[in-house]
Amino acid sequence: MTEYQKLQELILSKPSRIVILSHRNPDGDAIGSSIGLCLFLQKFMHTVHIIFPSEYPLSFSYLKNSEDIVIYDIEAEHAQNLVAQAEIIFCLDFNDLDRIDKLGVSVAENIKAKKILIDHHLFPGNFPDLCFHDVESSSTCELVFEVIEKMGYFSKIDPMIGEALFTGIITDTGSFKYSTRAQTYEIASKLKSIGVDDYFLQDKIFNSLTHKQLSLLGYCLYKRMKVIEDTNGAYIYLTKEDYKRYAIGRGDTEGIVNYLLMMPNIKIAALISEQPSIIKISLRSKGDINVQEMATKYFNGGGHKNASGGGIYGKLDDIIDRFEQEVKRLNK
Known about the structure:
Blueprint: H1 3-13, E1 17-21, H2 28-42, E2 47-52, E3 70-71, H3 76-85, E4 88-92, H4 103-109, E5 114-119, E6 130-133, H5 140-150, H6 159-172, H7 182-193, H8 198-206, H9 211-223, E7 225-227, E8 233-238, H10 240-245, E9 268-274, E10 279-285, H11 291-298, E11 302-303, E12 307-312, H12 316-330
Parallel strand pairs: 1-2, 1-4, 2-3, 4-5, 5-6, 8-9
Antiparallel strand pairs: 7-8, 9-10, 10-12, 11-12
Helix pairs in contact: 2-5, 2-6, 3-4, 5-6, 6-7, 6-8
């Protein structure tokens, strides 16, 4: 029996209490894959709850049922109870339980629930009972589509499910600029064929910046952008004072690092943010430069070859210096 047949049997056996989990600071792929899978499972009369460790950007609130997502940081006890009572737990867009903070402990403690991983990051953990994993996939949304289709349920994908899955594909590929493969475009075509309006989605995703966010972007590019001399690297940094000055909140810095790669000579870029107790870094690259290795080795993180991130305790200046030195090493 294949993994797809095992999952199909699990879905069809009886209506179950299901929890869908994704990572802290959920992005379009985490949100889209979770909502898309949730809407699909509800067609089989399952009771489904989505739980994220932290809040998601409100720009994704156009997705159906996004208002029902449970946030652990806000409703910790409720979230833990849902995980404890779950009969099936789906883990989407993260590779191991430490990526969901304290929720990971709750998942590990629920020994009766079937645990299913759907993810495209490197090095999946050994905790799931069923694992659908492909690092070549553009996104977890692409994988969710493939899982549904290979179980024989393409006809169950309606426009609302399609919108959620297309959202993750758009955001994780940067509007089809990177991490694509032939299947990515085939899936996009199939989603359009069922009525998904990709223009509507692109407009919602990329044309929803507030005045504050645009002001912050201008400030970052004018005051906080640094090109590392005699290299193909650049970065933007933000201090604690910047966070106070612009009242920077969840999602306000999303996508800022990508602007650095608009310079033709820049192949590796970072957004380095000084937060109350940790320095966060978002890394992006072009071509064969592997920022996943850098994130893992130096910044306690991980991700993908051309898009990774991490967080580390230390001083802002030290983290900036570490990034600069690594860029210079790569340019030798």
